[in-house]
């Protein structure tokens, strides 16, 4: 099989990281196109250089003649090809539902530092960010983490979906390490209420291919350009 | 077949309307549960009264023992059962990708009046809303509508996906009528650049089952509680 081509911004983890983690855990060969060849081919595909529907934005994945965008849609397509989700239809539907809820949470995390949108720099919307981040820490963070914790609990405690690790677990790992980077204080305060998520994070980090990936240069560090940003003033 | 049960807030179109339009256009029998029986059963399912994964929030659909949440996931599941999407895998993938981009746009429309989140009333975040709406009208609205218009154009001009009407067309109709309600001035200004979207909107409105639905009491009116809100100050 020729390698997948992943198109994503080269300097950040962002939403692309949820795809990278799935590809890495599956041991699937892939090229991180913008990191190896610059953003030119990616931007060309967004402008419509390929056939059929153009992506609105990255991440998107190319496999043969298929170009597929939207993180959760990519994962739903990729996962059954690599054993990253149970085969049963209901499990796949619920994995996708949960992944889309993670996507909703990503928007809210992003909007803590960009409540007015990405057209302005953080510094141009800092008072608004302070207000939004306060609400995030007080309401939204406990609500979403509580929901994910409950989903784990109701499924036996160890896996988000089914009886073994799936791509949703990999994304929940990324959520947890991202939050610990961006909101260390607020996240620590919730630690006792999300013990299953914490344990899941440790187990995912110890998966051999994930551990090798995290130790490699392929894993970009968190930085002040991604979705999870360490602005101490937004952590209360 | 016993009717689908749709769970959504009873007083607004919101995201639930994208499901209602699909069910109506398909002529599929359904119960709009919260409108007929109140929100109790819906809130109970969100709290985990059912088996398996609980929805984070509405809309969700129950069919037999399946409870499925997330608007785009519901549509992707529902559409092939009712001929609302081509059978070919690639068309279904791209329909879903496009629907998820519509979902992203919905968040941005919502955030024009709630840039700090739903925990505060509009009146408590009005200065922020004015700033965000300005950026929305200037950047985001033309960007998204231009993208949808281009997607239509590249697919022959009449349908978003494939060679006949699909659930994505129904959602694009809802986007257009919602924008005309919430941002009449800004939307009119773009009219010449989105002629295919305008024509699509007219064609969808004329589909017999859609027309019958829109004329019925089942179609809730737009109002100041939904995603599309007519606040003239946000329309510039």
* Percent range of helical residues of chain A: 40-55%
- Given helix and strand content, the structural type of chain A is alpha+beta
Q: Tell me the strand percentage band of chain A.
A: 5-15%
Elements of chain A, N to C (H/E): EHEHHEEHHHHHHH
| Mean model confidence by pLDDT of chain A | 97
Please report the distance between the alpha carbons of the first and last residues of chain A.
Answer: 49 Å
How many β-strand runs of chain A? 4
Pair with the biggest interface: A-B, 46 and 45 residues
The radius of gyration of chain A is 18 Å
Sheet with the most strands, sense and barrel status of chain A: 4 strands, mixed
* Weakly predicted, low-confidence segments of chain A: none
Give a quick rundown of the structure.
Two copies of one chain form a homodimer. Chain A is an alpha+beta fold.
Description:
The structure is a homodimer of 236-residue chains. The first copy, chain A, is α+β, with helices and mostly antiparallel strands. Chain A has ten helices and four strands. A four-stranded mixed beta sheet of chain A has the order 2-1-3-4. In chain A, α1 links the parallel β1 (4-7) and β2 (30-32). Chain A is globular and about 45 Å long. At the A-B interface, β4, α4, α5 and α6 of A face β4, α4, α5 and α6 of B.
């Amino acid at each position: 099989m020729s390698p997948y081509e992943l198109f994503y911004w080269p300097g950040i983890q962002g939403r692309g990281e949820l795809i990278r983690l799935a590809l890495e855990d599956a041991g699937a060969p892939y090229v991180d196109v913008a990191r190896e060849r610059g953003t030119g081919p990616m931007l060309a595909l967004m402008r419509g250089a390929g056939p059929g529907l153009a992506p609105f934005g990255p991440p998107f994945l190319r496999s043969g003649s298929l170009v597929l965008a939207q993180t959760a849609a990519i994962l739903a397509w990729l996962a059954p090809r690599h054993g990253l989700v149970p085969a049963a239809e209901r499990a796949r539907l619920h994995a996708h539902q949960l992944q889309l809820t993670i996507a909703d949470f990503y928007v809210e995390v992003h909007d803590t530092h960009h409540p007015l949108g990405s057209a302005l720099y953080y510094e141009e919307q800092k008072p608004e960010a302070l207000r939004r981040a306060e609400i995030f820490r007080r309401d939204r963070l406990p609500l979403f983490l509580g929901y994910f914790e409950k989903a784990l609990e109701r499924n036996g405690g160890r896996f988000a979906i089914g009886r073994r690790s799936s791509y949703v677990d990999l994304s929940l790992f990324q959520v947890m390490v991202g939050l610990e980077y961006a909101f260390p204080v607020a996240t620590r305060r919730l630690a006792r209420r999300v013990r299953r998520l914490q344990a899941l994070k440790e187990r995912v980090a110890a998966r051999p291919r994930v551990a090798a990936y995290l130790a490699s240069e392929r894993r970009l560090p968190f930085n002040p350009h991604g979705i999870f940003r360490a602005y101490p003033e937004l952590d209360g």
